[in-house]
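This part of the workshop introduces the protein records we will be handling. Getting from the letters to the tokens is the skill we practise here. The record below serves as our worked example for the rest of this section.

…
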Amino acid sequence: MRTVLTCDLGGTSLRVALFDGTGTMLARADLPGQTTVDDRGASDADAGRWWADFAAGVEAVAQGHPTAFAKVAGIAVSGVTRTQILIGADGTALRPALTWKDTRASQLMPALTAHMPPDHPDLGNLNAYHPIARLFWLAQHEPEVIAATRAVLEPKDWFAFRLTGVAAVDPIGSARLLAGLGSGASGRDMFAAAGLSAAMVPPALPPARIIAPVQPGLPGALAHLAGVPVVSMGHDTWASVLGLGALRAGMAYNLSGTTEVFGVLSDTPAQAQGLMAVDWAVTHQLGGPSLCGGDTVVWALDLLAKGMLTGALSDLLAGPRQPEPVIFLPYLQGERTPWWNPALRGAFVGLNRRHGATDLAYGVLEGIAFLNRTVLQRAETATGQPIRDIRFGGGGASNPDWCRIKADVCNRPVSVTDCAEPGLLGAAIAAFHALGDLPSLTEGQDRFVRIARRHDPDPVHAAAYDRLYALFQASEQALAPISEQMSDFRMP
């Protein structure tokens, strides 16, 4: 039975795996991730290290399961999005990658917006996280890099480029970049308006299509993959939703890793304030990524559970809880969906002297879930199609307490699959489909995805969360102006 090699680059780790034609993971290697952030809103990462880590992961699975590695018939790589790697004429990265957290373009947004044609269809999505804004910032601060750029790639496209020598993007992960090429009635695109060259955008290839074979001459275990087809992929969210079996209309997904991503899938396109609307090839997605999630929980545990070992979150939640709850606004790093505001800041609201670590831990998890609910409600209203199930994946899905809280807050069933790495499984489904072993992505979901457990909302808790959610929204509205002022405040 032939196998496929898959990779998923996340915010905190890189994972490489081998799957067989039944969707069974035969081997896996994990390597720690890397991101550098400073106090000016910068977030850079070394694309060269990502490639070295990928090569090391391939070496590990090749040595761990040589028989399955010898049968690799296809390669599919997915990874973090909203991250730009700028490639020069010699195929090397010109500077560190600008990651999804980078907000250095914030101060230039008034000037950039003033340059934009007012009728451009993507103008409403233009913010500090938009690739055009990032490129505009580079043009002002590192003009020599922009002048030398031949291609702008996402991390997964960087891996495919290093494997094949072919630069290509996909219309899902690079939706905003490609939207910048379009124009309104004025005929002006975002690249021209920002003084950028549209030639730096590579051709777009839909996911689950073959890009090119692996080129010869690569080092180590990669040399044994020469001639193996490399498959185009959507970003890590698309791959994980596919691996959760949620890439179909009427479903919602929630990915909880370093950050959270929440979205709703529908048959027809729809628009909602603050949500990203993207054609996902087999269905339409409405939602997007946040900046809170697992990293926010890690922050809370560091404050509340110092010295506690594995299971600290469950231990905290098992403690006594006061009947009067705490509201937590989870905006520790600003926020993307649905606010797209780097200046937002977090807060605990309603603290009293009796509150302890358990109350604060519940507040953190509920605050993140309330943000999920905001996205869910806006998407459902826009699509007119209530969702029947939230597929929950990522590290957070392993905690039944968090699953229960999300089910109660959103008042929807939350289902968890038996695969702890849906991004890797989704890449395998896409690869087998591209190779012709699966007739469709839907068939791949039906064959490979299995539900491990389902959490139904508790009516009593759901009713209480309805009332608390209204107070959460009021707190957001009241504190947003203070957030703006605090983000610029510095003590002498």
User: Anything to note?
Assistant: The chain has two domains: 3-234, 245-488.
